[in-house]
Design a protein that fits this description.
globular, three-stranded parallel β-sheet
Length: 99
């Protein structure tokens, strides 16, 4: 969805360590997107945001989260900039963040 909407996408893969996200932001990523499809992976989203903040990079990147169990409330609680209910709304949210 993002590539089809004109974004350059770098897929970091699955089960990605927070440090990989930090590296991506250091290399110029403007948006970091994370998705959790099972509840046990959701805490890693917070760890990733913490790592980005600890590296002093939070002001350089917008963070969007989504996935089957993720909610707006969860996104707010972990410090994400946006929540995408699905890929379509995710694209719209990122466009708005970057406008």
């Amino acid at each position: 969805m993002f590539a089809g909407s004109g974004f350059q996408v770098v897929d970091l893969g699955v089960d990605v360590a927070p440090e990989k996200f930090v590296e991506a932001v250091e290399q110029g990523a403007q948006v970091a997107g994370m998705s959790a499809l099972i509840g046990s992976t959701m805490p890693s989203m917070r760890l990733t945001i913490d790592a980005i903040e600890k590296a002093g990079l939070k002001s350089k990147v917008k963070i969007i989260v989504g996935g089957a169990l993720v909610t707006q409330e969860f996104a707010d609680r972990i410090g994400a900039d946006a929540y995408g209910e699905d890929a379509f709304s995710g694209v719209d949210k990122v466009k708005a963040l970057l406008a």
